[in-house]
Amino acid sequence: MPKLKTKRSAAKRYSFTASGKVKYKRQGLRHILTKKNRKRKRRLRKPGILDHTEVRRAKKLVPYT
Questions:
Q1: What is the DSSP string of 33-62?
Q2: Within a domain: residue 1?
Q3: pLDDT (tens digit per residue) in 7-48
Q4: What is the dihedral of CA 26, 7, 60, 18, to 10 degrees?
């Protein structure tokens, strides 16, 4: 069986923890920041954890992790 190719766009977006969770950078912190309050911008800095229903899809896009 041939090697599987990694979807590079997914590999750049997702990172995997040792326990098998999938981390990603939250959206909404690039521009139009003046109307977003300080608390919201602070929460957006922290990495998001992908929902367990989507983890299998992410691992299929990024094999060998």
A1: -TTS-HHHHHHHHSPEE--TTTHHHHHHHS
A2: no
A3: 999 999 999 999 999 999 999 999 999 999 999 999 999 999
A4: -60
Domain count, the chain: 1
Distance between alpha carbon 22 and the CA centroid of its chain, in Å? 6
What is the extent of the structural domain holding 29? 8-61
pLDDT tier for residue 49 given thresholds of 50, 70 and 90: very high
CATH at residue 14: 4.10.410.60
> Would you say residue 2 lies in a domain?
no
Q: Does the structure show a pLDDT above 90 at 65?
A: no
In a domain, 3, yes or no: no
Q: CB neighbours (10 Å) of residue 62?
A: 20
